[in-house]
Amino acid sequence: xxxxxxxxxxxxxxxxxxRIATAQAEGRAPSLVAAVQRRGRVVWSGSRSCVDDHxxxxxxxxxxxxxxxxxxxxxxxxxxxxxLLDLDxxxxxxxxxxGVGGVTVLQLLGHSAGLAAESPAPWWERTPGTxxxxxxDVLGEQSRIHSPGRRHHYSNPGYTLLGxxxxxxxxxxxxxxxxxxxxxxxxxxxxxxxxxxxHAGGWAVHPWADALxxxxxxxxxxxxxxxxxxxxxxxILRFASFLAEGDDRVLGAASVEEMRAPSTxxxxxxxxxxxxxxxxxxxxxxxxxxxxxxxLPGFLAALWFSTEDDVAAVVLxxxxxxxxxxxxxxxxxxxxxxxxxxxxxxxxxxxxxDADLLALTGPWYWGTRPNILQLTADGGLTLQPLRGSGRGAxxxxxxxxSWIGLDGYYAGETLRVxxxxxxxxxxxxxxxFVFTREPYDPAxxxxxxxxxxxWRGLGG
Length: 460
Hints:
Pfam families: Beta-lactamase, DUF7586
Organism: Streptomyces sp. 900116325
CATH superfamily of the largest domain: DD-peptidase/beta-lactamase superfamily
CATH class of the largest domain: Alpha Beta
Shape: globular
Number of domains: 2
Keywords: Hydrolase
Enzyme class: hydrolase
Number of helices: 12
GO molecular function: hydrolase activity
Strand content: 15-25%
Strand order of the largest sheet: 12-13-14-15-16-17-18-19
């Protein structure tokens, strides 16, 4: 049976609409728009508004706040992939005179550089960026409050520094580089640094009364790389597809996968949340969600996607507080993934079988621990314990005949096939661990040797 339909079931659609309607009503948001994507296609969108017959749609711009940081992180990774910097480079190598010492590009991306969370007063989100014309005005006198690399401490000024780094290395403004390197290639024509009609206006809702107050919309100046962007539900889901799969016009699959990996230990007591490189990583109900939340006065935004379920959801609203958009977006992912689980792709065999690789498959023993080596349809190898959980990994072939681990305990480690003098396979060497065809095979190079009398019973 072949399955092609991308449409959601009516019950799923109603559950999605009920969730955002409840969120808008209970959160007292002037308006809210949400959309869900599956298999790279928007399969549902919905909106609610306090004004009859005037709801936003998936093409209405909202301010997305700190979701902007993910775009900035992509530009930094792009510089790395172009060979213009290394993530372990100290910032001072490319942007001297900041006064933040030897903090690295990687630490800034993952918020582990030890910088303060905010710039000095006045509150930067509600005041013009012209009040902070220099980096020193953004960093203040005490820019570092923790030792670099020791803990995750979210920092808006840190992403201002990354924006300045982008401008220095690329020789153009952050906005120009963003347009050229991300927005144009991905077709994100409704994402911009300034609002473009149709767009929502930002509002504050009184905490104890059903009353509204308009919020100012300031140009953030040097702080723009931390939170300036305006976007739509449709554009954000297009960006989510890129973050899930990569796009060689911007960043390849390996680089976006690197962004999704946790980069620092989580805060004490917060073992369900972490941060990659410009992406938040959370665990909820056994599901890993990636994305980012954002807020600026008058606006809240959230994007979450699950690569395992191939589902993404975005929620945009024009209220300063009162609505937990991150929870709503996560619930939208859960609704679709639980009600309509992903249909796996059909199993397909190898197009060609390499006899030498096929001969390597099957059981291998690390000491007495059995493992299974398998040849997969993509031409890679997997090594997994025969029973229970343990050290396992996928491996990809290298030109010299070795294999490099892609994940798990052996990520980055080298697997080599060691042959005897007659050309037969003696053993596998994996990061100095010897894997043999029999437990402690005396015919193989087992470290420490094997007792000459061999295996025996208790009375032997």
